[in-house]
Amino acid sequence: MSRDKEIYYPDDPEGRAAFRQHLVNSILESKELRKHPTELQEKFLFMLSNGWRTKNLAVERDRRRSIEKVGTDARRLQHAIETLQEKDRKALDYEHNDAPLSELLLALTKLKEKSEALANAIQGEHEEIRKIQDDLNAVGIVNTLQMFGIPCASRNDHPNKKEAPQESVNQKNTKKELLPQIHKYTSTSMRCVMLALLDAGEEKLSWTTTNTIIKRGKTLKNEANAATLETKASELYFLVDPFWKHVKIEKND
User: Fold this and answer.
1) What are the phi and psi torsion angles at 181 (to 5°)?
2) Which residues pair with residue 10 across a beta bridge?
3) pLDDT (mean) for 61-82
4) What pTM did the predictor assign?
5) How far apart, in Å, are the Cα atoms of 233 and each of 229, 237, 247?
6) Cα–Cα distance between 236 and 131 in angstroms, integer?
7) Which of 9, 5, 7 is nearest to 177 (CA)?
């Protein structure tokens, strides 16, 4: 069967397109999908392709870098002032007696500390947003798999990424990073999760990640009730929304 062929795809746009087609074909060949009519199969693939959603944090990352640069520049200017000779410091103080260097050094120290604290807070917020997103996505994918009767099975005996045989790839692709090999030891549910990650544009793809998502989704679905998942969705909304993310709600003891 085509799903068991050992084919190596380079991690580039052309390789990803071929890898995706191989994934789709192998998913449609599964006994669980074959029993569904074509219309439902297409709906299933559409749900998978939109099953891994991530908030674009590029703007926020640029914001954090700008704040970090302020802190770095403040540190450099502080160091430059501290290395001035005493006579030069006195000369600058005399010319700018309304803002002596001692006050400037104190202001730079505070600016550096506040910039570092704010950058760390933004980084922590990004990590929290990503974790909540991943939890909700994992539950959503497990729900989709179960809806179409696909067992949420994960396997740990899949092959690790390795170098492709010289004769199996084009000479121009031998130095490129390879995508995970689609192997008989990867379950249908693992391939479905891989398709969702691929269509979401995830850069690093691995079967280990698909296993983690399946296990996480099953755990949350079994242990967390609907109210808990709704709470996670609300937390994500408050963290991401440009208005609510700046509103601090006081909790009563």
Assistant:
1) -80, 130
2) 178
3) 86
4) 0.67
5) 6, 6, 17
6) 9
7) 9
